[in-house]
C-alpha cells in the first residue's frame, strides 16, 4: 500500500497525464511524446495495455483509486483521486491543501475520447437496445468536462489531430489561446456526443419527428469564399444527426473536379439534385437560381439533355446540370461539346454537373471541359427527412415534401377527361412544378418542360411567363399549378384555355373552383384536381 500511496501523491512539481482512449489512433505518438517530456502516464484498461506494448511506462488508474474496475467497466475513473486531480485550481491554496491532505496528485494533461456510440448505432444492421445503452460513455465525458472546465491548469485533448500541437505547446511553443481552443473543442465534442444519445433514445422511446427539444450537431466542412453576396462571410456545415447518416444529399457529395463550391453553388446543386431524383426514367434537369428552367425525361439521356437545355437555353447558360443516371463517355462528350440552341455556335457553359456516378472515361472528358467546372457525385436523398429552415430567432421544421404522382390521385372534375398521354403530361408537369418557386406554373408535353413561371406575386404573371417560354408548343400541352387558382374568368384559367392548353392540373380548394370547372368546360379543356398543394418559398 505504501507504494501505491506514493503513486497517488506525487512529489511537488511532478507532471501527470491521464490517457483513456476508445480510438487509439496515434496513441504511441502521444504516449511516448508525453513521457519524453517528463510526464508520468496514468491510464485505464485497454489503453494502458496498448501504451505498454508501445514501450510507455504506465501507472494504472486503480493504483491511484485503490479500487479495481467494477460493474463491467462502468466504473473506472469516477473517483475523487481522479477528478480531484483534474478539477483542483492551482491558484487556490485551499484546493492544493485539500489534495495534500488526501494524498491526491494533480493532472496537467487529460487525453480522452469516447465509446464509439455514433458509429455503433448507425452501423449496418443496427444495434440491439441494450448494446446501445452499454456504448453510452459516462466516465469519459465526466473527465473531459472536468478538464475543460479547469483548462487554465489542465490541457484537454479529444481529437487525435491535436496530438502534435499538444506536444509542441508543452515544449514551450506557446499559443495564448491554445488552452481555450482545446476546452471549446472538448465541450463541443461532448455536446455532439450527447445529442446523438438523446436523438437515439428519443427515437427508441417515442419516435415522434418533433421532440420538445431538438439539438442539431453541425460539423464544419469548409469555409466559403463568401456568402450569397461577396460582402457576406460564409461557411458550409454538414448535419451530423443520426437521421442523416447515409441518407444522401448534396452535403455528402464527392467533388471530383473544379473550383471550390460557393454558397450559391450549394443551394443550386441541392435544388437540381432534389428535382432530378424525383424522376424514375432517365432525366436531365437544368437549374438556375434554384429554379428548374429545363426538365426532360427520355430513354435516350442524350436527347433528354438536349431538350432540357432547349427549354430555356438563355437561363441554362451558367446553370447547373443534373442527371439521375450515370454519366458515361458519350454523355460527357455531349455535355462538353453541345452548342447553345440560341445561335448554334456558343459552347454551353455550366457551373456544376451532378450525377449519381461517372465512368472513368466520362469523368476524364468532363474534366477537360473546364478547369472550373465542378463535378459532383451524389447519393439520392432518402424520403422522410426532417426539413429545417431558419427564421429570425427560430427554426421551422416540417416533413420533406416527398409526394410523387404515384402517391396521389388526379381527379377529373371537368366534362372532358384527359387521354392517357395527356394524363402523363399532367403528372410530369405536376412533378416539375413542386420544385419551382411559388407562385409556380409549369407547361409540359411529352415528358419535357416547355416553359415555367416562378416567384411572381400573382399566379397570372407566372402563367404568362410560362406561356411566353413555351411559345407555339403550348397547344395541347399540360399545365400544372403549385396552388389553386383564386379566379378563372378573365384570369389565369381562361388565359390558359384560350392559349390552347389541353389539360390543367391544380390542387383545387378555392371558393371559386366551380368557375375554373365551368371555364374549362367552355373551352373543352380537361381539369384535374390533385388535392395536394406544392408551395415552395
TrEMBL record:
<comment type="pathway">
    <text>Purine metabolism; IMP biosynthesis via de novo pathway; IMP from 5-formamido-1-(5-phospho-D-ribosyl)imidazole-4-carboxamide: step 1/1.</text>
</comment>
<keyword id="KW-0658">Purine biosynthesis</keyword>
<dbReference type="GO" id="GO:0006189">
    <property type="term" value="P:'de novo' IMP biosynthetic process"/>
</dbReference>
<dbReference type="Pfam" id="PF01808">
    <property type="entry name" value="AICARFT_IMPCHas"/>
</dbReference>
<dbReference type="InterPro" id="IPR024051">
    <property type="entry name" value="AICAR_Tfase_dup_dom_sf"/>
</dbReference>
<keyword id="KW-0511">Multifunctional enzyme</keyword>
<dbReference type="GO" id="GO:0005829">
    <property type="term" value="C:cytosol"/>
</dbReference>
<dbReference type="InterPro" id="IPR011607">
    <property type="entry name" value="MGS-like_dom"/>
</dbReference>
<dbReference type="Pfam" id="PF02142">
    <property type="entry name" value="MGS"/>
</dbReference>
<keyword id="KW-0378">Hydrolase</keyword>
<dbReference type="InterPro" id="IPR016193">
    <property type="entry name" value="Cytidine_deaminase-like"/>
</dbReference>
<dbReference type="InterPro" id="IPR036914">
    <property type="entry name" value="MGS-like_dom_sf"/>
</dbReference>
<dbReference type="GO" id="GO:0004643">
    <property type="term" value="F:phosphoribosylaminoimidazolecarboxamide formyltransferase activity"/>
</dbReference>
<dbReference type="InterPro" id="IPR002695">
    <property type="entry name" value="PurH-like"/>
</dbReference>
<comment type="pathway">
    <text>Purine metabolism; IMP biosynthesis via de novo pathway; 5-formamido-1-(5-phospho-D-ribosyl)imidazole-4-carboxamide from 5-amino-1-(5-phospho-D-ribosyl)imidazole-4-carboxamide (10-formyl THF route): step 1/1.</text>
</comment>
<comment type="similarity">
    <text>Belongs to the PurH family.</text>
</comment>
<protein>
    <recommendedName>
        <fullName>MGS-like domain-containing protein</fullName>
    </recommendedName>
</protein>
<feature type="domain" description="MGS-like">
    <location>
        <begin position="7"/>
        <end position="158"/>
    </location>
</feature>
<dbReference type="GO" id="GO:0003937">
    <property type="term" value="F:IMP cyclohydrolase activity"/>
</dbReference>
<keyword id="KW-0808">Transferase</keyword>
Amino acid at each position: 500500500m505504501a507504494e501505491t500511496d506514493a503513486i497517488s501523491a506525487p512529489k511537488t512539481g511532478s507532471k501527470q497525464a491521464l490517457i483513456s482512449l476508445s480510438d487509439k489512433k496515434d496513441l504511441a505518438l502521444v504516449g511516448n511524446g508525453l513521457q519524453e517530456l517528463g510526464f508520468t502516464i496514468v491510464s485505464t484498461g485497454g489503453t494502458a495495455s496498448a501504451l505498454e506494448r508501445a514501450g510507455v511506462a504506465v501507472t494504472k488508474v486503480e493504483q491511484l483509486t485503490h479500487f479495481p474496475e467494477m460493474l463491467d467497466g462502468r466504473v473506472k475513473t469516477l473517483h475523487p483521486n481522479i477528478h480531484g486531480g483534474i478539477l483542483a485550481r492551482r491558484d487556490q491554496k485551499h484546493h492544493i491543501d485539500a489534495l495534500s491532505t488526501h494524498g491526491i496528485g494533480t493532472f496537467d494533461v487529460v487525453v480522452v475520447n469516447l465509446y464509439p456510440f455514433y458509429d455503433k448505432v448507425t452501423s449496418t444492421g443496427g444495434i440491439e437496445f441494450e448494446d446501445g445503452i452499454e456504448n453510452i460513455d459516462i466516465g469519459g465525458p465526466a473527465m473531459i468536462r472536468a478538464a475543460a472546465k479547469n483548462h487554465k491548469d489542465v490541457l484537454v485533448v479529444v481529437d487525435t489531430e491535436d496530438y502534435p500541437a499538444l506536444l509542441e505547446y508543452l515544449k514551450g511553443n506557446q499559443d495564448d489561446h491554445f488552452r481555450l481552443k482545446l476546452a471549446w473543442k472538448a465541450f463541443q465534442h461532448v455536446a455532439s456526443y450527447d445529442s446523438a444519445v438523446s436523438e437515439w433514445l428519443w427515437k427508441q422511446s417515442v419516435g415522434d419527428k418533433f421532440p420538445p427539444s431538438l439539438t442539431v450537431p453541425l460539423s464544419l466542412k469548409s469555409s466559403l469564399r463568401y456568402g450569397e453576396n461577396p460582402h457576406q462571410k460564409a461557411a458550409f456545415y454538414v448535419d451530423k444527426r443520426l437521421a442523416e447518416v447515409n441518407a444522401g444529399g448534396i452535403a455528402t457529395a464527392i467533388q471530383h473536379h473544379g473550383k471550390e463550391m460557393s454558397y450559391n453553388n450549394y443551394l443550386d446543386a441541392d435544388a437540381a439534385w432534389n428535382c432530378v431524383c424525383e424522376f424514375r426514367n432517365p432525366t436531365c434537369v437544368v437549374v438556375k437560381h434554384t429554379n428548374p428552367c429545363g426538365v426532360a425525361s427520355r430513354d435516350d439521356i442524350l436527347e433528354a439533355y438536349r431538350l432540357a437545355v432547349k427549354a430555356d437555353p438563355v437561363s441554362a447558360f451558367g446553370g447547373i446540370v443534373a442527371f439521375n443516371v450515370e454519366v458515361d463517355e458519350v454523355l460527357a462528350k455531349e455535355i462538353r461539346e453541345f452548342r447553345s440552341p440560341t445561335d448554334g455556335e456558343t459552347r454551353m457553359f455550366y457551373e456544376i454537373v451532378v450525377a449519381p456516378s461517372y465512368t472513368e472515361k466520362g469523368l476524364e472528358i468532363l474534366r477537360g471541359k473546364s478547369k472550373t467546372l465542378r463535378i459532383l457525385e451524389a447519393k439520392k436523398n432518402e424520403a422522410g427527412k426532417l426539413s429545417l429552415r431558419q427564421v429570425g430567432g427560430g427554426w421551422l421544421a416540417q416533413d420533406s415534401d416527398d409526394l410523387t404522382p404515384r402517391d396521389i390521385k388526379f381527379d377529373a372534375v371537368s366534362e372532358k377527361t384527359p387521354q392517357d398521354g395527356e394524363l402523363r403530361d399532367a403528372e410530369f408537369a405536376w412533378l416539375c412544378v413542386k420544385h419551382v418557386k411559388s407562385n409556380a406554373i409549369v407547361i409540359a408535353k411529352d415528358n419535357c418542360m416547355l416553359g415555367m413561371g416562378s416567384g411572381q406575386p400573382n399566379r397570372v404573371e407566372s402563367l404568362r411567363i410560362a406561356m411566353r417560354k413555351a411559345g407555339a408548343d403550348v397547344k395541347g400541352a399540360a399545365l400544372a399549378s403549385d396552388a389553386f387558382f383564386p379566379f378563372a374568368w378573365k384570369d389565369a384559367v381562361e388565359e390558359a384555355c384560350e392559349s390552347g392548353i389541353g389539360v390543367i392540373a391544380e390542387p383545387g380548394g378555392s371558393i371559386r373552383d366551380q368557375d375554373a370547372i365551368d371555364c374549362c368546360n367552355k373551352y373543352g379543356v380537361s381539369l384535374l384536381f390533385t388535392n395536394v398543394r406544392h408551395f415552395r418559398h
